[in-house]
Specification:
By secondary structure, this protein is α+β, with helices and mostly antiparallel strands. Helices cover about 25% and strands about 30% of the residues. Strand 2 and strand 3 form a beta hairpin. The two termini are about 25 Å apart.
C-alpha cells in the first residue's frame, strides 16, 4: 500500500455516505452544457460552489456532470436557477437519484 501511495497510484481514500441518512432527501446528478468558449468559466464557477459534491467533465450527453445533495426540492430548484444564471450555460438536465443500487 505504501509503495502504491508513494508512486501516486493511490491518490487518496474516501468514505461512502448515504445522503438520506444525514437529512438530504434530494440526491441529484445534473448534466450541464455550455457554449464551448465558456466551458472553463462555468467549471470554475461550479468548482467553488459549496453545493457541488462532485464535478466532472464528460464526453457523453453533457459537457459537465455534477453530483449534488439537497434537503428539499426547493433547494434543488434554487440551485438550478443559480446555474442558469452562469454566463455560457446553455442546458441543464437534473436527474434525481431514487435509489443507489451498488
Amino acid at each position: 500500500m505504501r509503495k502504491l501511495e508513494k508512486e501516486g497510484a493511490i491518490e487518496g481514500y474516501t468514505i461512502k455516505v448515504n445522503p438520506k441518512k444525514i437529512g438530504y432527501k434530494i440526491h441529484a446528478l445534473i448534466g450541464i452544457d455550455t457554449k464551448p468558449e465558456r466551458l472553463l468559466h462555468v467549471i470554475e464557477k461550479l468548482r467553488t460552489d459549496e453545493d457541488v459534491v462532485s464535478l466532472y467533465t464528460s464526453s457523453g450527453d453533457h459537457m459537465i456532470m455534477i453530483e449534488t445533495w439537497f434537503r428539499t426540492s426547493d433547494e434543488l430548484s434554487h440551485f438550478v436557477k443559480k446555474i442558469e444564471a452562469i454566463e455560457g450555460v446553455t442546458r441543464i438536465c437534473p436527474a434525481i437519484i431514487v435509489e443507489r443500487l451498488k
